[in-house]
Automatic annotation (TrEMBL):
Annotated localization: Peroxisome
Assigned protein family: Belongs to the enoyl-CoA hydratase/isomerase family.
UniProt source species: Aulographum hederae CBS 113979
Keywords: Acetylation, Fatty acid metabolism, Isomerase, Lipid metabolism, Peroxisome, Virulence
GO-annotated biological processes: fatty acid beta-oxidation
An example Gene Ontology molecular-function term: delta(3,5)-delta(2,4)-dienoyl-CoA isomerase activity
Protein name per Swiss-Prot or TrEMBL: ClpP/crotonase
Chief place where the protein resides: other
Pathway this chain belongs to: Mycotoxin biosynthesis; Lipid metabolism; fatty acid beta-oxidation
Keyword Cytoplasm: no
InterPro entries assigned to the protein according to its UniProt record, in alphabetical order: ClpP/crotonase-like_dom_sf, Ech1-like, Enoyl-CoA_hydra/iso, Enoyl-CoA_hydra_C
Pfam families noted in UniProt: ECH_1
């Protein structure tokens, strides 16, 4: 079992519910898990650590409490910060723009740490899942939801275009570009059944507790497989998403030229012939 040492940073709660499975909970329930700057910096720290932790083979991300996965950015706190705060008198537009661009890129990179993580990340959405909840979940590997989840791409309602990933990733995650435009332009709230219908999530559970159990079961199944095979599959799928088939095939060939040399292939084949459960070394 892995150790939580170094993982329990401010506003996050971390546990190991099963061997090789880590559960990260956004832990600011009194504020509906709304994000302040410390939180997105700590999120990146946690998932960068998960990426290289040999005791982790799959991660789960959820929110503490039953009310919300997250309601997104803490707008009150953000209004006093560098992005939404007022410009100083006489501040040069280009220089303020440069500072804002750097800040936005840093925020984007923190959320992209979920996508960049070498281990699969399963998101369990529940309760309110607004704004940043969509940004984060779209950067993860598998999205699940409780039946009570209420989704919203909220940014147009606070006067800005979503800038942390939703507008870039959502059209690639669901089957209808018209639907993407509609929910992003109207900021309307939609439910879990609709999210399942368009492909935003791939599984529904009756409530959060059942969803956590389902996510742990799925993560345990993934973690029982060769970590070499799992890492390669996640990497190639992510790389191929934004490229053509020919490029994807070439990348797969280069990747597997090294990875096919693993002893895991022999172990998996022999276990199938011998009708036993294989075990694999840490990666």
């Amino acid at each position: 079992m892995g150790s939580v040492a170094g993982y329990n940073l401010d506003y996050f709660k971390v546990s190991f519910p099963a061997e090789y499975v880590i559960h990260v909970e956004i832990n600011r329930p009194e504020k509906m898990n709304a994000f302040i700057e410390t939180m997105w910096l700590n999120l990146a720290t946690i998932f960068n650590k998960i990426s290289h932790d040999p005791n982790v083979r799959c991660a789960i991300l959820s929110g503490s409490g039953d009310k919300a996965f997250t309601t997104g950015l803490d707008v009150q706190a953000a209004s006093q910060g560098p992005i939404l705060g007022s410009a100083a008198p006489g501040e040069d537009t280009a220089r303020r723009g440069t500072a804002l661009r750097r800040h936005i890129l840093e925020f984007q990179d923190c959320i992209t740490s979920l996508e960049r993580c070498e281990k699969p990340v399963i998101t369990l959405l529940h309760g309110h899942a607004y704004g940043l909840a969509i940004d984060m979940s779209l950067a993860t590997t598998i999205r699940l939801a409780a039946a009570n989840t209420r989704f919203c791409v909220k940014e147009v309602d606070i006067g800005l275009a979503a800038d942390i990933g939703t507008l870039s990733r959502l059209p690639k995650a669901v089957g209808s570009f018209s639907w993407c435009n509609e929910v992003c332009l109207t900021a309307r709230v939609f439910g879990a059944e609709e999210a399942l219908r368009v492909g935003l999530v791939s599984g529904l559970f009756k409530d959060k507790a059942e969803g956590v159990r389902g996510a742990v079961e799925m993560a345990t199944l993934i973690s029982a497989k060769s970590p070499v095979a799992v890492q390669g599959t996640k990497e190639i799928l992510g790389w191929s998403r934004d490229r053509g088939v020919e490029d994807g095939l070439k990348y797969t060939a280069v990747w597997n030229a090294a990875m096919l040399q693993t002893s895991d292939v022999k172990s998996a084949l022999l276990s199938g012939l011998q009708k036993r459960k294989p075990t694999f070394e840490k990666l």
